Amino acid sequence: MSQQLSSPPTYRSEAVRVRVPASSANLGPGFDCFGLALTLHDVVEAQVQADGLALSVEGEGAHTVNRDGRHLVVRAMNECFAKLGGPPPGLRVACRNAIPHGRGMGSSSAAIVAGIVAARALCVDGEQRMDDVALLRLATELEGHPDNVAAAIAGGFTLAWTEADGPHLIRLEASPEVSPVVFVPSTELSTRKARGLLPRTVPHADAAANAGRAALLVEALTRNPELLLVATEDRLHQDYRGPAMPASLDLIQRLRADGVPATVSGAGPSVLALATRDTVEKVAGLAGEGWRVHRLSVDPLGATVLS
Ligand SMILES: Nc1ncnc2c1ncn2[C@@H]1O[C@H](COP(=O)(O)OP(=O)(O)O)[C@@H](O)[C@H]1O
Ligand SMILES: [Mg+2]
Questions:
Q1: pLDDT for residue 281 is more than 80
Q2: Using a 6 Å cutoff on CB, does residue 265 contact ligand 1?
Q3: Is any atom of ligand 1 closer than 6 Å to the C-beta of 147?
Q4: Res. 2 pLDDT band, cuts 50 70 90
Q5: In angstroms, how far is CA 192 from the centroid of its own chain?
Q6: What's residue 1's pLDDT?
Q7: What pLDDT does 5 receive?
Q8: Closest ligand to Cα 190
Q9: What is the pLDDT of residue 290?
Q10: Which of 41, 43, 70, 72, when mutated, tests ligand 1's pocket best, judged by the most ligand atoms within 8 Å of its CB?
């Protein structure tokens, strides 16, 4: 390993294409821990070139994201190149984005994971220079917390946590019955802003209730979807953030009153409903005006190098 790192990396001349899923974090009680990968994908194509940066962006964020080295995919690629032993001379990056930005659907994690996985795939011995543990560590460092990046990397239903040696993840299989529906409003809410609304301390009873519900959610989401309504109850973050997204909290209340397990998706303002195969059509019709409705599946693959 140290031998390899002491020699500069060799980069492939062919393009690589990486597909990364959207993800929904928290799922109610599993604050900063649970992630669910969803079948809505960004695709990044990257190729080494003689010099400079050629960046193109289509789809979500095309009119808003930076077009230089501050672009999140490019930044993640450069951070990864530094860890691999040094950058290639120049880079062409083409992004095709389907994941909406600032909606709590893990767009920043998808961008970061796509960048790191693409940079690693461009390097001839990239997986020897950066293993999956180091990939999760770098992605978590750039994102600030591991829940969405875990789902974007591994797919499925993920649990993420941090120890002294860094972030860890476990991937579980969601029940095939579960059919996520995501309701996306037209307004954005940055994760940083949403985090600012959380209190410094919470009542012990609320913390205890969340711990129990989070444990129950592992059973409900993997094997026992009829427990999802009770298992998605949260007392630690959703209500505190309500003032920043009243329409989302209102929709969640309406869905839950109808027996549909619904939560804020990540830091919001999107709403995640964990419908089942039988209820998905009915659930998708419950939101009314002003919401873009995505009927999705749990993405089983996570970040994938396509070519
Ligand atoms: N595909 C992308 N390419 C470039 N930047 C991105 C991409 N996805 C997200 N970002 C950056 O991340 C920001 C959104 O991050 P965040 O507030 O965490 O919301 P989200 O819930 O969508 O992750 C965007 O405003 C943009 O700056
Ligand atoms: Mg984010």
A1: yes
A2: no
A3: no
A4: very low
A5: 15
A6: 47
A7: 61
A8: 1
A9: 93
A10: 72
The segment(s) of the chain belonging to CATH 3.30.230.10 are 2-171+300-305
Instruction: Answer yes or no: is the C-beta of 97 below 6 A from any ligand 1 atom.
Output: yes
- Helix axis angle, 132-143 to 147-154, nearest 10°: 140
Domain 178-295 has CATH 3.30.70.890: yes
- What is the whole-number distance in angstroms between the Cα of residue 61 and the centre of ligand 1? 8
Q: Which ligand is nearest to the CA of 194?
A: 1
**Residue 201, pLDDT score:** 96
Q: Against a cut of 0.85, is the pTM above it? A: yes
3-state helix, strand, coil in the chain (%, to 5): 35, 25, 35
- 101 Cα–ligand 1 center, Å: 5
Relative to beta strand 90-97, strand 52-59 is parallel
Kindly list the distances between the CA atom of residue 297 and the CA atoms of 1, 165, 278, 293, 300, in Å, as whole numbers in the listed order.
39, 33, 14, 13, 9
- pLDDT of 196 reads 87
**CATH classification code of 2-171+300-305:** 3.30.230.10
- Ligand 1 atom nearest 190 alpha carbon: 17
* 42 CB near ligand 1 (under 6 Å): yes
Give residue-wise pLDDT tens across range 87-142. 999 999 999 999 999 999 999 999 999 999 999 999 999 999 999 999 999 999 99
What is the residue-wise DSSP string for 163-174?
A: ETTEEEEEEEPP
* Residue range(s) in the chain whose domain bears CATH number 3.30.70.890: 178-295
Res 192: pLDDT:
84
Average pLDDT, integer, range 9-22: 98
How far, in Å, is the centroid of ligand 1 from the Cα of 168? 23
- Where is 36: in which H helix or E strand? strand 34-49
Q: Of 230, 228, 232, 231, whose CA–CA distance to 263 is shortest?
A: 232
